[in-house]
Amino acid sequence: MTFDSLVKPSVRTQPVYEPGKPIEDVARELGLDPAGIIKLASNENPWGPSPKAIAAAKRALEHGELYPDGGCFALRQKLAGKWGLGADQFVVGNGSNEIIELLGHAFVAEGDEVVMGAPAFVVYKLVTLLFGAKAVEVPLVNHRHDLAKIAAAITPRTKLVYVCTPNNPTGTANTEAELLAFARALPEHVVGVFDEAYAEYLERAPDLRPLIAEGRKVVCLRTFSKIYGLASLRVGYGYGSADLCALLNRVRQPFNVNAIAQAAALAALDDDAFAEKTARENRAGLAQLERGCAELGLEVVASVANFMLVRVGDGTAVFQALQRRGVIVRPVRSYGMPEWVRVTVGTPEQNSRFLAELRHFLQGPAGATR
Ligand SMILES: Cc1ncc(COP(=O)(O)O)c(C=O)c1O
């Protein structure tokens, strides 16, 4: 039996997203003790969620028999207070991944074009292809988004343009001035999407709200998966004009964000001290990784996010060797960077272990040069 004649062409040729390897998979495949494995592959928060978020999630589970508030009223109210925007200027998703899909539902059809940097977060491309549109990829320059080149790639067929800042997988960011100028020059027929999944790690994140006040067609994406440590619960949001958010809310599932995730996200927003501690630890961790890689003579891309690209030679070989020793990092061959791996900033102990295993791979157990 085959589904070839039934399935939509865009699905037949759809590439498959490769997530960071879960600890359980690695333990099973390699016969390792899961307790001894560390995962530095998906830019998760090594400090876990805020204790306040954990407590709120537990409380919400007590009412697991009830459907969640599909409109995420309380969470949107809270976000409105945090951002100084209206509650109708938010759309909450099952991770910010879902908002990217909602943008596809609302705006992208066959024959359309979506412009994005390359390499950038691969889901922009996957969703574009899924809706039968063309992904127009604009190479980064010096590992950074070149906004002039991105603007030049816009055509009458362009519907969306994605700018990921800080960018995954490079960890580089564009300045507020660059982003504002770029967005203000976008043509009327294009929606500008600014993915700020890692913005909380910046000393000072660009403030793109003036664009919303000016009535521009922009939406910014945020997530609770990174600095708030809630990746498993799947909650993220977009903010922009009320009209745009209404469109995105129209195409989502009625109960897209579960009640436990909503409760945890609400409580996480009440724990600024936790987020600030995570950002501080992250900056120290970036410095630790940079120092360690320099000692090994390895090039890195200076990062302002919670991960870093390291040029190791054969990225797949390093990924496999480290995985056998219980350290999971991310090969980035699929992002067109076969010589690099991406490592998430862990706790100081996890960073040390990564560096020690990398040294072990490069120099052998006795420190002899390979
Ligand atoms: C740039 C970027 N955007 C969005 C996401 C999706 O995050 P989530 O769906 O967990 O909110 C990720 C996840 O790694 C990311 O790196």
Task: Give an account of the 3D structure.
The protein is of the alpha/beta class and 370 residues long. The chain has 2 domains: 123 residues, Aspartate Aminotransferase, domain 1; 218 residues, Aspartate Aminotransferase, domain 2. It is built from 14 helices and 12 strands. The strands form 3 sheets. It has a 7-stranded mixed sheet, with helices on both faces. Strand 5, helix 8 and strand 6 form a beta-alpha-beta unit. Helix 5 packs parallel to helix 6 and helix 12 runs parallel beside helix 14. The N and C termini lie far apart (51 Å). The mean pLDDT is 96. It binds pyridoxal-5'-phosphate. The site of pyridoxal-5'-phosphate (PLP) has 13 residues, from helix 5. The site of pyridoxal-5'-phosphate has 13 residues, from helix 5.
